[in-house]
Amino acid sequence: MSKLKKSQRSLRQWTKQKWRTKSGKKSSETGERYLPEKAIKALSSEEYARTSRKKREDTKKGKQHSKQPKKVARKTRAYRKLGGPALTYNQKYHKDTIEQGKVMINEKGQPVTARVDGLEYNDKIYNVPFYNRKGGFYSEDEALEIYKEDIEKGLIKGYDKKFDGPNENHPANVAARLEHQMMDIDGEKISPESIAYNLLKVK
């Protein structure tokens, strides 16, 4: 039996983590923060309420992602990394789409939760979600308008456009492939309740 590479072991362990809300209900229904089960158990009721309150406030403001209060973030950081790397911006979007029950099934029968693609801005390439959670996709202009603030805040990693090598080996493409590995494995466990748009039913 071949030995798994470190990255493969981390990926397999990462997908075994149980992410949930404290009530066990969908985050889209309660507005609760979605975290690994062990992280939730490590927080006091007041701390979980505080981070969930912050998430509700940011959601109302239309923010794509909600940062946790600093003290809560420090306390949950170890659990978010347990068994693998911390979630990237796009992986968080993927997880949030599932929790909000806004997954789309495309024409090939595949679940769509983020559809990460490269967005060019200031001579750099940023991998961002183009799925709009409404059964469609953002145009490049729409994506730039939506993600520009987070890009400028440094929340989304940028990669230099110039690259001396095959396009498939560009750092942005390598990063996107690694992210999609997790999303594809995680996508196999999506429940019917998380699906809001099914293009197979339209035909």
Tell me what the structure shows.
With 203 residues, this protein is an alpha+beta fold. The protein has nine helices and eight strands. It has helices at 6-15, 27-30, 37-42, 45-60, 70-81, 89-99, 140-152, 171-187, 199-202; strands at residues 19-20, 35-36, 103-105, 111-112, 116-121, 124-129, 158-160, 195-198. The strands form three sheets. Strands 4-3-8 form a three-stranded mixed beta sheet. Strands 5-6-7 form a three-stranded antiparallel beta sheet, sandwiched between helices. A two-stranded antiparallel ribbon has the order 1-2. The N and C termini lie far apart (44 Å). Mean pLDDT is 81; it is low at 1-15.
Rounded average pLDDT: 81
What is the makeup of the main sheet? 3 strands, mixed
CA-CA gap between termini: 44 Å
Strand order of the largest sheet: 4-3-8
What level of helicity do the residues show?
40-55%
Structural class: alpha+beta
Order of helices and strands: HEHEHHHHEEEEHEHEH
> Taking Cα atoms only, what radius of gyration do you get, to the nearest Å?
17 Å
Report the strand count: 8
Discrete helix count: 9
Q: Which regions are unreliable across 5 or more consecutive residues at pLDDT < 50?
A: 1-15
What amount of the residues lies in strands? Answer: 5-15%
Inertia-based shape:
globular
